[in-house]
Amino acid sequence: xxxxxxGVKTGGRLPGGTARRSxxxxxxxxxxxxxxxxxxxxxxGLFGVASALSGTFIPIYLWKASQSFMLIGWFTLGQxxxxxxxxxxxxxxxxxxxxxxxxxxxxxxxxxFYFTVLMLGQQAKTYSIPIGMLSGMALGFYWMAYNVVYFExxxxxxxxxxxxxxxxxxxxxxxxxxxVSGFLITTLQGERGYKLIFTISLVIFGLAVVGSFWLTNRGxxxxxxxxxxxxxxxxxxxxxxxxxxxxxxxxGVREGVFMFLIGLVIYIATxxxxxxxxxxxxxxxxxxxxxxxxxxxxxPGNRRIAMLAGTIMIGLTILxxxxxxxxxxxxxxxxxxxxxxxxxxxxxxxRVFDLIGNSEQNVKNREELIVLRxxxxxxxxxxGLAAYLIVLSQTQSPVxxxxxxxxxxxxxxxxxxxxxPFLSADNKFR
Length: 430
Description:
- The protein is mainly alpha-helical.
- The protein has one domain: Up-down Bundle (Growth Hormone, Chain: A).
- It has 17 helices and no strands.
- The two termini are 23 Å apart.
């Protein structure tokens, strides 16, 4: 997920056990978070609020205009593929030039995406793939820079804490923003409400850009960007990135469907944007408490069993939907997912970045390895989305949709299997 001019943050130990000293201003001894980490969390919080205000309702906006599951699938495919290409290309800019420009451009393009949807109105359905590509470009520039900054200003001893707080901020965004959006859309009766929330999002994106100017840009260290470094890692027999990449792909399979389908199913089941806002408020409140608790309690010694429990439970929470797809069963599913998802996502994210900081050579190639991580997520998301497009092209019955959700929802169990050698308390990668 998440960079400056005064040194490289390594985030691990040198081969042979020699401790590496961090020179990052965003990290402190003993697991505490420094000023740069807090500032990055603030920028991400603003970005998250702006995205949650409008992004939750983009699939619904397109659905209301088109009544087409397939159109939303093609919009999402354009977003994923363009995001992956942008991420790969932006890696060179971030590694060799000024990474904060990439971060700010991503925020600005996110604003441009919502402005474009605002201007197109109901005609957005005609341009679903191009606007999906614009959204993907924005996310590619933003997350490439954000992930590198995150790596540089955190250490293995505070990475779980940072991710826990990031999860709390995401939950807070989910509590407030979609509820406000749903209230405004229903109160202002549709189109006027959508225009208002898209406009508010633009303002908050502007605040995020302003906040980013206080983030320190660590300068380049003379290394050239290696376009195919990730591929070289995967070719090497015994390289730990082969198992890690497989685990990341499984994460992407679930995300590829759940990132857009849940809100759409809730709207179709209730025909009420306000209900979706209430759903987000309740489930995000549960997620806030859960991320706080897990971020505080998760330790290297209990990562393995905690992540296994999390992956199993986020699959089992889908089962009530086989009985009936209505607001009550969707709420049970949402609360269950919010309760257990931190057990999965916190160790998953932390261990990827711990592996990036595992050696000096990895640290030098952190941009390329972050691109490799994103490639795994995108491959997984496209696999999940392809399953969605195939199933929905044949049938749109509730049973088919719930079966699809269950099948992609249990894929993270395979991710735990691939990741489990990296979850031991000795913090070694084999």
